[in-house]
Design a protein that fits this description.
Number of strands: 13
Strand order of the largest sheet: 2-10-9-8-7-3-4
Helix content: 40-55%
Order of helices and strands: HEHHHEHEHEEEHEHEHHEHEHHHHEHEEH
Shape: globular
Distance between the termini: 50 Å
Radius of gyration: 22 Å
Length: 410
């Protein structure tokens, strides 16, 4: 008998299981609205033109080699990433109290930050410190903090299903009632999975409560630039919190806004009270990275670094990002219009009120099941769809499928 005989079979990761089911489906009109990756209007992955250009520059650069990077990552990548998040005129950067840790995607940035907080936040070994994540949230948030050792992971109110928008009253109430020094994971923009963000005035209220109640903010920024097409607009909340004097973490991902999904390029930006605190924080993060992946890979970081540090390439990248964001906005507008023209029961204004890659359609689990089994349109059980999966070629079919589903299935 194997010593591993008692290992239970783990359930598949839902979004990847959905993609596997889609691939096995032979229906000619099948549509995949599940996986969170950008697709062109031909439903193909898009290699950004600026990425192709930078890859060529890297190949032709004879000064580059495959030596180990520093444990914390490529220095010019880390600094440029933090600058993109905090802005060119960030006082925190000028005061030398901002640092970065190159990570394996946004997930790696979250995990390094979570591990540090578990070890060092407000004392040593904080397994009982409450971690608050939005209800709903990206499924990995709960798992990352649980695997880092936190025992008390709580939901905070976010989605108002009845009104298909933000439950700001419930969110404020949870902030007011949370124990002091609790940690809140906030989505910087393009909330996953709802696509619903607070307004700037609501962000100001959130910041006021968190400062007054000594709550720690850990921003997850996976879609900067990709949401609205503007890097500055999508980073507004982060920059406001920094301007208010918060010490905070920002987990950055360059998967979406660079199309570098398989390069796993991420950065953990640390905003500390002063440079001395920052030095000690990064020294401990270096020890965590050393026993996690030891040294990060260079290719994706070099692509991002060369782009962000060249005015010409940076301008080209912003144009590429806006191209992606504009297509998503167009698909939102067209889907809402087509549903309204069909007379589909219910209100569909939330589709254009939401922002970013994902839309919380409001379809319930039975309706999702009907969409998949009868219409061969694949989406998450929560009713979340990836707007990038819509194209001018399939949007009519998807709209008609939603109309039929909502009409037939309650």
């Amino acid at each position: 008998m194997s010593i591993f005989s008692d290992v239970p079979q783990a359930p598949p990761v839902a979004v990847f299981k959905l993609t596997a089911d889609f691939r096995e489906d032979s229906h000619p009109q099948k549509v995949n609205l599940g996986v969170g990756a950008y697709r062109t209007d031909d439903c193909q992955p898009w290699v950004l033109p600026v990425v192709k250009e930078v890859e060529r520059l890297i190949v032709e650069d004879d000064s580059l080699n495959h030596e180990y990077l520093p444990i914390l990552g490529l220095p010019e990548f880390r600094s440029a990433s933090s600058k993109v998040a905090l802005g060119d005129d960030s006082a925190a950067i000028k005061e030398n109290r901002v640092g970065g840790v190159q990570a394996l995607g946004g997930t790696g940035a979250l995990r390094i930050g979570a591990e540090f907080l578990r070890r060092w936040y407000n004392g040593v070994n904080n397994t009982a410190t409450p971690i608050y994540v939005s209800a709903p949230t990206w499924e990995n948030h709960n798992a990352v903090f649980a695997d880092a050792g936190f025992k008390d992971i709580r939901p905070y109110h976010y989605w108002d299903a009845a009104n298909r928008g933000l439950d700001f009253t419930g969110l404020v109430d949870d902030l007011e009632k949370a124990p002091e020094h609790s940690i809140f994971v906030l989505h910087a923009c393009a909330h996953n999975p709802t696509g619903t963000d607070p307004t700037q005035d609501q962000w100001k209220k959130i910041a006021e409560i968190m400062k007054r109640r000594n709550l720690f903010v850990f921003f997850d920024s996976a879609y900067q630039g990709f949401a609205s097409g503007s890097l500055d607009k999508d980073a507004w909340a982060i920059r406001f919190f920094v301007s208010e004097g918060f010490e905070l973490f920002v987990a950055q991902s360059f998967s979406k806004n660079f199309g570098l999904y398989n390069e796993r390029v991420g950065n953990l930006t640390v905003v500390a009270q002063d440079s001395e605190n920052l030095t000690r924080i990064l020294s401990q993060m270096e020890k965590i990275v050393r026993t996690t992946w030891s040294n990060p890979p260079s290719q994706g970081a070099r692509i991002v670094s060369k782009t962000l540090n060249s005015p010409e390439l940076f301008a080209e990248w912003k144009g590429n990002v806006k191209t992606m964001a504009d297509r998503v906005l167009l698909m939102r507008d067209q889907l809402k219009t087509k549903l309204q023209d069909l007379g589909t029961p219910g209100t569909w204004d939330h589709i254009t009120q939401q922002i970013g890659m994902f839309s919380f359609t409001g379809l319930n689990p039975k309706q999702v099941e009907y969409m998949i089994k009868e219409k061969h349109v694949y989406l998450m059980a929560s009713g979340r769809i990836n707007m990038c999966g819509l194209t001018t070629k399939n949007i009519d079919y998807v709209a008609q499928s939603i109309h039929e589903t909502v009409t037939k299935v309650q």
